[in-house]
Amino acid sequence: MKYNIVLDTNVLVSALRSKKGASYLLLRMIDDKRIQVNLSTPLVKEYEDVLNRTTHNLTLEDVGDVLDYLVSIAIGHKIYYLWRPILKDIKDDMVLELAVKATSMIITYNKDDFKGAEKFDIQILDPKEFLILLGEL
């Protein structure tokens, strides 16, 4: 089975800050044939902005390399929805819109931020829960 996923920014930040934990393991497995990453241009821009501010152990070039790799393995989506806002934070709405378009689950550490996503039958998992689903933990 192939799992369509959208990574919330906090998972990517966590994975790049520390080589310990579920988010790092998930990022290492991101090209696994069971996983299909989905991206949109606004989400990639969000990743870039946040990573350049928060992952001080990485250079701009390192961040660019990570993002280039994610873009190379992901399916890109254009989003045209006009039903915002659904969630408290517009940046979370951007993640939800992509998940709806891509029929994906959202992988996040901030599950409470996605209250309202259930209207769209979107599954919200943290990285550990997703790795358990894959049979990796």
Describe the structure.
The structure is a single chain. The protein contains 6 helices and 5 strands, in the order E-H-H-E-H-H-E-H-E-E-H. It is α/β, with parallel strands linked by helices. The protein has a 5-stranded parallel β-sheet with strand order 3-2-1-4-5, sandwiched between helices. The chain is globular.
Keywords:
alpha/beta; Rossmann fold; 5 strands; 47% helix; 14% strand; globular
Overall mean pLDDT stands at 93
- Under the CATH scheme, the architecture is 3-Layer(aba) Sandwich
In which order are the strands of the major sheet placed? 3-2-1-4-5
Provide the succession of SSEs: EHHEHHEHEEH
| Number of helical stretches of at least 4 residues | 6
Q: In total, how many domains does the architecture comprise?
A: 1
Low-confidence segments, given as residue ranges, are: none
| Dominant shape | globular
Query: What structural category arises from helix and sheet content?
Result: alpha/beta
CATH C-level name: Alpha Beta
